[in-house]
Specification:
This protein is mainly beta and 146 residues long. It has one domain: Sandwich (Immunoglobulin-like), CATH 2.60.40.420. The protein has 1 helix and 11 strands; from the N terminus they run αβββββββββββ. The strands form 2 sheets. Strands 1-7-9-5-2-3 form a 6-stranded mixed sheet, with no helix packed on it. β2 and β3 form a beta hairpin.
Length: 146
Amino acid sequence: MKCAGALTGCLLLLLTTMGCAGARPPTLPDIAWATAPTVDIVLTDAMIRPALIKLRKDAPVRLVFQNKTGTPNTLILGDFYSTLNLSQSNREPRSVIRLGPGENQELDVVPRKTGEYALITTLSVIDLSGWANGQRSVVDVLPAAR
């Protein structure tokens, strides 16, 4: 298990140094966030739910990250982060979301680029081949609604 932790640490360091941590995306003027849809992104011991998150380009959404594990967890937003506009209420936006056991964090965003983006958690599991893998989820940003 120590090996899995070391691999996870190396993965996080590699993604951060490759620019995935990124600079702060542009902020948006106030939007009626109370009426924006909410997407719950739940981190469990075995997976990220939902496995596929569908969003629309230019459509405001509130992402609620929930750590349902008994241990700290880290979610790497990677390239998805660089495609976002953030609400001005996001005090400390970052491409790496760190959650304590049972903790929730909200991020109000507007995706501004279509595409598929991976979200990766650093909570490791050992798969049948013996490799340590973080859980993954995919964000699919679809073209803006007409």
